[in-house]
C-alpha cells in the first residue's frame, strides 16, 4: 500500500510548523491513519517517558513513563497527535489510575484495535510507587484470551518494572 497525499490528508498535526500545545486534557487532538496491513497481527509500541499530570487534590505534579502497546485493526494512531494528547494531561488533575484508563478509552475509541494495553510507571511520592495497568480486547476469542492472560501476568509480577 502506497501512502498518497490524499490518504494522509486527514493528518493535520504532522508536518505542521505552527503546533499548538493543548493546555488541558483534549482527546480531540488525536489523529489516526489507515493500517496498511490489517490482516497481519503485529504489535505497535509507544514509550512515552515524560508523561505528567496533576494530583486532583494537591495540584502537585505527577510524572510517569508510559508503555502503550496495541495490535492494530483498521486504524492506527498518528504519533505526533499522541504526543500532543499526552501533553494535554500536564495541567489536568486526576489520579494515576484515572489517567491510564482515560488514555486507554480514548485510544480504543479512536482506533478500535484488536488488542490494547497501557502501563504507567509513576515516580514514587511519599515512598510509594503506583503502576496502573489497563488492557482491552475487541471481543474476538483469541484477543480475549490474550487480554485475560496479560492481566493475570501483571498480577503475578513480583515487582513493578521500575524496580526490576
Give descriptors for this structure.
GTP Cyclohydrolase I, domain 2, four-stranded antiparallel beta sheet, two-stranded antiparallel sheet, 4 helices, 27% helix
Q: Quick gist of this model?
A:
The chain has four helices and six strands, in the order αββββααββα. By secondary structure, the chain is α+β, with helices and mostly antiparallel strands. A hairpin with a 6-residue loop joins β2 and β3 (61-71).
Mean pLDDT across residues: 90
CATH architecture term: 2-Layer Sandwich
Order of strands across the biggest sheet? 2-3-5-6
Structural class: alpha+beta
Domain count? 1
Number of strands: 6
- Poorly predicted ranges: none
Helix amount, in percent? 25-40%
CATH class placement: Alpha Beta
How many strands, which pairing sense, and closed or not: the largest β-sheet?
A: 4 strands, antiparallel
Could you characterize the architecture of this molecule?
With 164 residues, this protein is α+β, with helices and mostly antiparallel strands. It has a single domain (27-156), classed as GTP cyclohydrolase I, C-terminal domain/NADPH-dependent 7-cyano-7-deazaguanine reductase, N-terminal domain (GTP Cyclohydrolase I, domain 2). Helix content is 27%, strand content 25%. It has helices spanning 5-8, 79-87, 96-111, 141-156; strands at residues 32-34, 44-54, 61-71, 75-77, 115-122, 133-137. The strands form two sheets. Strands 2-3-5-6 form a four-stranded antiparallel sheet, with helices on both faces.
Amino acid at each position: 500500500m502506497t501512502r498518497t497525499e490524499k490518504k494522509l490528508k486527514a493528518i493535520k498535526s504532522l508536518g505542521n510548523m505552527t503546533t499548538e500545545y493543548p493546555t488541558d486534557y483534549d482527546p480531540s487532538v488525536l489523529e489516526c491513519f489507515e493500517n496498511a496491513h490489517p490482516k497481519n497481527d503485529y504489535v505497535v509500541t509507544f514509550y512515552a517517558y515524560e508523561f505528567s499530570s496533576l494530583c486532583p487534590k494537591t495540584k502537585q505534579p505527577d510524572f510517569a513513563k508510559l508503555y502503550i502497546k496495541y495490535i492494530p485493526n483498521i486504524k492506527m494512531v498518528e504519533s505526533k497527535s499522541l504526543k500532543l494528547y499526552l501533553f494535554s494531561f500536564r495541567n489536568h488533575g486526576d489520579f494515576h489510575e484515572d489517567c491510564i484508563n482515560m488514555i486507554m478509552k480514548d485510544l480504543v475509541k479512536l482506533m478500535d484495535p484488536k488488542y490494547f494495553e497501557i502501563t504507567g510507571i509513576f515516580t514514587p511520592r511519599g515512598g510509594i510507587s503506583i503502576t496502573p495497568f489497563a488492557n482491552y480486547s475487541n471481543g474476538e476469542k483469541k484477543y480475549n484470551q490474550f487480554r485475560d492472560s496479560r492481566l493475570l501476568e501483571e498480577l503475578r509480577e513480583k515487582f513493578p518494572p521500575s524496580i526490576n
